[in-house]
Specification:
four-stranded mixed sheet, Ribokinase-like, 315 residues
């Protein structure tokens, strides 16, 4: 079982519009409502892969109740943490030419009691977990050290933990030696404090994250594939993608693929790449099922092309 923790979940409303004109009345041509948050997406991808997951998330108000209902309708077990504030509602405006404008609300502020209840709920739900995946930003009321505390508690309980966050929360958690961290190129560059121009630059940055405490680093490089850097070696994975439809949730799908394949070694990297490649070829935030995967399109090698320039270098 994979337990996911989403400290700042959301109710995501997406409106399809012909174009976005400031100051004008814009009439939507389509609308959808989805449960949001990186950990929520990991649970959705794990469920699509046919594996059991439990999603821990603070929920409050009408938006929180709707998030729980939507997850339940998708067959995802939810361990809610009741909060007095309302779960945030995010809005995305999808234009016909593919441009996506997102408005993300800050979310509620958790009280000290709610903070402890969230940690306690993770503890109670983790007894049957093979992995805990902690993902996304922290809401108001949770200090940057909150993920570090959660990693420490998970290790005390003997559970492996994967972390997908950024900024001070990532930096502080590295000291507690999370079993795997999953940054993208921008997050790698932010931690090491320098630009990334090549795949080799990304490898060096991942190695520095390991020096700071990460046991393994699963780095998403967008169109350039993924890296896995651990104490047993460094591997590079890529996949053929015929057409990109949406990259929403692709990184979360990759992390789910990595964890359901054991969370270590080149085989898990191949699963991560296959899940990410399948996700970008599906509409919106749809998560791939086993039928969507194309393992034959995936290549994993220990011969990392360190001199290859990144398609989207990080300045």
């Amino acid at each position: 079982m994979i337990l996911t923790v989403t400290p700042n979940p959301s109710l995501d409303r997406t409106y399809e519009v012909p174009s976005l004109d400031r100051g004008e009345v814009v009439r939507a041509t389509g609308e959808r409502v989805d449960p949001g948050g990186k950990g929520v997406n990991v649970s959705r991808a794990v469920t699509a892969a046919g594996r059991r997951t439990v999603a821990v998330l603070p929920l409050g108000g009408a938006p929180g109740a709707l998030v729980a209902d939507l997850l339940d309708a998708q067959g995802i077990e939810v361990a809610p943490v009741p909060i007095t504030g309302a779960t945030r509602s995010n809005i995305a405006l999808a234009e016909a030419d593919g441009v996506l404008t997102k408005i993300n609300a800050p979310g509620p502020e958790l009280t000290e009691a709610e903070r402890e209840l969230l940690l306690d709920t993770v503890r109670r739900q983790s007894h049957d977990a093979d992995w805990i995946a902690c993902c996304g930003s922290l809401p108001r009321g949770l200090a940057p050290s909150w993920y570090a505390e959660l990693v420490a508690r998970a290790h005390t309980a003997g559970v492996r933990i994967a972390l997908d966050t950024s900024g001070p929360a990532l930096r502080q958690a590295l000291g507690e030696r999370p079993d795997v961290v999953k940054p993208n190129a921008e997050e790698l560059a932010e931690v090491v404090g320098r630009p990334l121009a090549t795949i080799g630059d990304a490898v060096k940055a991942a190695e520095e994250l390991r020096e700071l405490g990460a046991v393994a680093v699963l780095a998403s490089l967008g169109a350039d594939g993924q890296l896995l850097v651990s104490d047993t070696g460094t591997w590079y994975g890529s996949a053929r993608v015929d057409a990109v439809r949406s990259n929403v949730g692709a990184g979360d799908s990759s992390l789910a693929g990595f964890l359901v394949a054991g969370g270590a070694g080149p085989q898990a990297l191949a699963s991560a790449v296959a899940h990410g490649a399948a996700a970008v070829q599906l509409p919106g935030s749809v998560m791939p099922t086993p039928a969507d995967l194309d393992p034959a399109a995936v290549t994993v090698t220990a011969r990392v092309p360190v001199d290859r320039p990144l398609t989207e270098p990080v300045p």
